[in-house]
Structure formats: C-alpha cells, structure tokens
C-alpha cells in the first residue's frame, strides 16, 4: 500500500528523512509507548497503592463516614478467591469521632486515637449472647496512648497498631440477588460483594459502642475495592452492617476488551474470506490456510486475559464456532476446486478403429 501523496513529497524532498525515516519512526513510536506505559503505571499506583488512609474530611466523605460520635473501622480487602468464593479482609480500628471516644476537647474525628478497649464481632447482635463467641479481634487503647517505638519511624505514624484477618463468603449467585453481576460470565465487568454485620463492644463495661463508619478499600492487584456502610435503627438499638465490593481495575477492563476486539477482528476476517471464496473470488491458497492458524490462535489470545474465566458466550464461544465453520467451508471448497474428477465424454467411451479391427481379427 503506497504512502499518501503528501508524505511522499515530504520524504522525497528530504534525503536524510528518506534514508533514516524507518529508524526515526520506530524510535518515536517506542518513546511514545514507553511514556504512555510509565504514566499509566504511575496513575494506577497513585490511585490504588500510594494513597494513605487518613481521617480528613475528604476521605471521610468519599467513604460516607458520617462523623457522628463513634468508632471508625478499616476493612482492607487484600485477597479474593473466585474458586472458593471468599474475600480475605484486614480489620483495624483507625480512630474515632467525638470527644467521649477520642478523649479530645472537640468532636472531630482523630486518627489512631480512642479511649475504649474494643472487641470487634462479625455477624453478631448486641441483643443476643454475643459473649459466647470469640471476637475477630480486640483493640487496646493503651497502645494508642503509649505507642511502641516502631510507630515513631517516619511514615509509620498513621498506621494502625493492630489488625486482624477474616475470611468472608462472597454473596452467592442466586435468584434473590438484586444485581446478578457476581457471575464471571460478566468478565471483565463482574462485581463481587460480601455482606457482614459489625458489633463493637467495650470490654470494660460490656456495652455496645456506636460505629461512625467503615473505610473499605481493596489493595489487590487488578482489583478495585469499595464499601457501603448501613446503620439501621431497630427498636431502641442501632445495628451496623457493611457491604464490601470489588470490581476489576480499569486497565484490566481495557486490556480484556482489546483482546476481545482482536479475536473478533480475526474471526470477521476469516468470515469475509469465506464469503469471497463462496462467491468465486480468487483468494490465495496460502491465505486460506491461515484460517486454521486463526482457529488455534483464538485460545492463546484469550488465555492472555488476566484472570479470565474458562468460558464465555459473547466472545470466545462465538469466535470458535464462527472460525470453525468458516475454516471447514474453506478447506472443502479448496478440495472441490483442486481435486475435481476428470471429465468423461461419449467420444472417450467409444472404441477406436484399431480396437475394432483387433476385436474382429480375434474373432476370426
């Protein structure tokens, strides 16, 4: 395919560009790709791994922490097992709001400051025998008032003193689910959620403590986590629950869609080649044989998708069906074209004069 006329004129007038044009073009392309890669990686890291959790108003508003008197919990989703359908979560107490819980002279929310010794229970209710079960973890206020020496290392002042792990089941894919996006058939737009109730108990008075909010996020590679906090008034008490949700990171979605488009382009190309052959357009035999190569390339392209499910309907299934049918049609058409039987005419079937004479002499 020739270059556009204006590019031909520019290159023709500049012998240096004509000689070094391919090298310069490749170099510029590599530089642009390298810059895009560095910027994309830096944006991804800054957004998901370099932002510190704090108790400023912007962070509290993002995570819908009300700022009412009570504790502020942190839920860090650090692992997901799609086969086992579970989340692994770090739980920590990052601070409190209100002077009665922070010991401060004002009602502001303060990080790593609380005066109560707290036991955190999951999926328990204050109105039942919660004390017969073990808490997920206990948080000692004395460690906040007299922190260990490691806390004074620069950059570690805001880290929580204690954290505890738990494994939560992912909400099942059942008819009662409002948004059936937990199925991996939605890949790469699938979402997975876990729901859990929270109960904070003052271990000194055995009284329940209010929870101002939960900061929930995901520190998993390829995933973005978030949370929704649900305080609900039932009778004379307030019950607390949180929904933890993860979805695939934007770069993963873009890469998966790019690979899906690549498979569809290959499939449509084979389809177009098949249509041309059926309408008796001359297509090179070597090009026709590439349809079988495309058939074996589709699984490899799809396998390069991050955490791709083993099966999907809209992409891989349709691609394989389309290319399989087209490849079969192309091969059969080539066989029919190249290996047609030799034509037999009445003249060829009639005996020659020599054969007739030989036959008559044999009879005599």
Topology summary:
Blueprint: H1 5-13, H2 15-48, H3 57-62, E1 70-81, E2 86-97, H4 99-102, E3 109-111, E4 118-122, E5 137-139, H5 142-145, E6 163-169, E7 191-202, E8 207-209, E9 211-218, E10 223-234, E11 237-248, H6 250-278, H7 285-303, H8 313-338, H9 346-349, H10 353-363
Parallel strand pairs: 1-9
Antiparallel strand pairs: 1-2, 2-3, 2-6, 4-5, 4-7, 7-8, 7-11, 10-11
Helix pairs in contact: 6-7, 6-8, 7-8
Describe the structure.
The protein is α+β, with helices and mostly antiparallel strands and 364 residues long. 40% of the residues lie in helices and 24% in strands. It is built from 10 helices and 11 strands. The protein has helices spanning 5-13, 15-48, 57-62, 99-102, 142-145, 250-278, 285-303, 313-338, 346-349, 353-363, and strands spanning 70-81, 86-97, 109-111, 118-122, 137-139, 163-169, 191-202, 207-209, 211-218, 223-234, 237-248. Strands 4, 5, 7, 8, 10 and 11 form a 6-stranded antiparallel sheet that branches. Strands 1, 2, 3, 6 and 9 form a 5-stranded mixed sheet that branches. Helix 6 packs parallel to helix 8 and helix 7 runs antiparallel to helix 8. It starts with a helix and ends with a helix. The model has no long low-confidence stretch (mean pLDDT 80).
């Amino acid at each position: 395919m020739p270059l556009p006329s204006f590019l031909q004129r520019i290159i023709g007038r500049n012998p240096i560009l004509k000689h070094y044009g391919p090298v310069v073009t490749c170099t510029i392309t590599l530089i642009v790709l390298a810059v895009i890669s560095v910027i994309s990686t830096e944006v991804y890291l800054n957004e998901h791994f370099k932002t510190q959790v704090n108790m400023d108003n912007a962070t509290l508003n993002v995570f819908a922490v009300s700022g009412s008197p009570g504790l502020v919990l942190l839920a860090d989703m650090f692992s997901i097992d799609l086969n086992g359908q579970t989340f692994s979560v770090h739980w920590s107490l990052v601070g409190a709001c209100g002077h009665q819980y922070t010991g401060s002279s004002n009602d502001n929310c303060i990080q790593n400051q609380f005066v109560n010794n707290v036991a955190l229970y999951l999926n328990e209710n204050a109105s039942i025998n919660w004390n017969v079960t073990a808490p997920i973890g206990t948080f000692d206020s004395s460690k906040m008032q007299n922190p260990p020496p490691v806390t004074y290392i620069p950059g570690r002042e805001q880290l929580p003193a204690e954290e505890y792990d738990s494994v939560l089941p992912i909400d099942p894919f059942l008819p009662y689910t409002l948004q059936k996006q937990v199925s991996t058939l939605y890949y790469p737009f699938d979402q997975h959620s876990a729901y859990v109730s929270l109960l904070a108990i003052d271990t000194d008075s055995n009284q329940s403590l209010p929870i101002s909010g939960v900061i929930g996020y995901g520190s998993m590679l390829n995933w973005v986590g978030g949370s929704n906090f649900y305080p609900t008034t039932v009778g004379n008490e307030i019950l607390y629950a949180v929904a933890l949700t993860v979805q695939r990171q934007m770069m993963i979605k873009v890469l998966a869609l790019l690979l899906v488009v690549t498979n569809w382009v290959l499939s449509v190309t084979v389809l177009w080649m098949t249509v041309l052959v059926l309408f008796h357009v001359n297509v090179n035999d070597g090009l026709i044989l590439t349809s079988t190569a495309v058939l074996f390339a589709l699984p490899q392209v799809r396998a390069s998708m991050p955490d791709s499910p083993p099966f999907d309907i809209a992409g891989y299934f349709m691609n394989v069906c389309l290319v399989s049918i087209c490849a079969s049609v192309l091969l059969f058409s080539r066989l029919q074209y190249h290996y047609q039987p030799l034509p037999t005419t009445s003249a060829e079937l009639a005996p020659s004069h020599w054969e007739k004479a030989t036959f008559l002499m044999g009879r005599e």
